[in-house]
Amino acid sequence: PEDRSPAADPVDTHCPYCSLQCGMTLRPVPQGAGPDGGPDGGPGSGPGGVEVLERTAFPVNRGALCGKGRTAPAVLSSRVRLTEPLVRRPDSGRLEPATWEEALDRIAESLAATGRAHGRDAVGVFGGGGLTNEKAYALGKFARVVLGTSQIDYNGRFCMSSAAAAHQRAFGLDRGLPFPLADVARTGCVILVGSNLAETMPPALRYLTELKESGGRLIVVDPRRTRTAEQADLHLAPRPGTDLALALGLLHLVVAEGRVDEEFVERRTSGWPEARAAAMAHWPELVERITGVPVPELRAAVAMFCDAENAMVLTARGPEQQSKGTDTVGAWINLCLATGRAGRPLSGYGCLTGQGNGQGGREHGQKADQLPGYRKLADPAARAHVAAVWGVEPDALPGPGRSAYELLDALGQDVRALLLMGSNPLVSAPRAAHVEARLRSLDFLAVADVVLSETAALADVVLPVAQWAEETGTMTNLEGRVILRRAALTPPPGVRTDLWVLGGLAARLGWEKGFPADAEEVFEELRRASAGGPADYSGITYRRIAEEDGVFWPCPESADGAGPHPGTPRLFLDRFATDDGRARFVPVGHRPAAEEPDAEYPVVLTTGRVLAQYQSGAQTRRVTELNEAAPAPYVQLHPLLAERLGADEGAPIAVVSRRGRAVAPARISRDIRPDTVFMPFHWAGPGRANTVTNPALDPVSRMPEFKVCAVRLEVAAEA
Ligand code: SF4
């Protein structure tokens, strides 16, 4: 493991959770003095503790943290964290303690044996959007040069892959926000589509508050009246899965009312006639019928958006987690382009990434079709560059593999052994009961995690790995700002880092060129591998990140003594990253969700997050304060729907789809449409929302349709 002593002084670092990557300072405190280590644990079993101090200097959150960030140290000292490897014993069938040697030997032998017996693509690797850039890079390299498999993807596919695909298509480059988040406070109007950032990333809400205080307008598009929607000047509540039509209706009105920025369209875009024709086929009354949003509200939105000198559209999982997510985001981008709200300061389209390193995680090679530096795996020049850095022949690199859900769906069939790091798909994947069955059908499963997650509990070998505050590494936040998480603690004695694990496995599998365990050494290699690519990190060093508190990519290494490249906070100001420098309109049309309500399943289910939990809940469900605030799933439904069902507040509601049922107490509220129910997805067990969700995939991004599926409701015997 990394040999790092606990820091004597406070350490500046970042929150382990979402893509805001809030800055914080960790101060070491004596063992047992940290926050409560969780409902199953308690303080003090770890290697000592840290407390979180405000760090106002980091510009993104300026010291503010949500409850998840404030309580993050609890998992470090929780008694339920893993502190020794576990191996499933054939005689007992149970996971029991083992040495690291035994655990790594068993994994290496099983992966090698599977490859020999069934071919290299029978071994799969599944990563996570919370892994550091160094881990994402090392995991991608490990899969491709050590295992020689094409079967690697990561849970970031479930996060913002549709926005990434739409970004690529329109702008030639994908960076979540092509401008600093602080620009949001200084624009004139924001349309926020499918984001409840008041709960998912509360410190970001201040930018919307500042926007409104300076006279700007906020339009929120969400089927629910969320805490974020309550802040809006105008709340549009379309039926789930119809926001593509909504964007087209707005674009139709922009054209009809003469609000197109003809000069911008002519000078900086291509493809407008086709996109215009597609929008003109979606007249306002038709859009009202599809979306349920009244025409006067459409007109009001267009007026607010177009009257502002500068304006932005920001999307999140709402429009993205659909089987037409790429086209839906594309429709919102078309609206920005037609009104000249892109490629200039304080205007543009951006995506609010979800996971902590959802952005960097896909830039550096754990996505099925990508190599480090955001290079395409299918591009011969990209393969040659990266192969040279890795010391292999380009032909030795496998081609693109399956996307995340398709990989999970192939487990136990084409893919017979799986190494999984930093993900809990048994809770977070769509059609989760099926995914669970697929995981159980594997010949071999190895999981590296910090706690025994629901997925880890199925594994043949479980590796206890270090947590955020125990190891150093970089993350790339939602703005494309590369930041440094610093170690503040030594991991417990039985715990190792993910990088050390990959090095140990690589050596056992015959890789002789070394797999560094030191994060900075990995980053130096990543810099070389990314050099010249779309996401060029070659000019970024640990030292620079420390001195500048983050550096925006692309940041090439300056040549000819020109001095260091400053990084690129704002993209596309002079040209877009397409071959001709123009942004591309893509003509898109409305189409229904993969599964529309019918007589048997008459209601729409949509899913999302709540303030006190994070993703699959593997960490946050183990923190007392968070668990007390949000202890269990629920079904939010409108009083009219509750009355039809004969359900009172708290009654157990079974939400049943063609894939299974989830049961949770009713939470009756007028803040949701009468034709829609909402469930948060952070929990396993009977209330697992993803048992019900639909894995129908977007044809471009391969994003599953988490946000829309048809269900029927029943009052159940018990929750
Ligand atoms: Fe952490 Fe996100 Fe909360 Fe900030 S908003 S403290 S990064 S979970």
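qc> The chain has 24 helices and 30 strands.
qc> done
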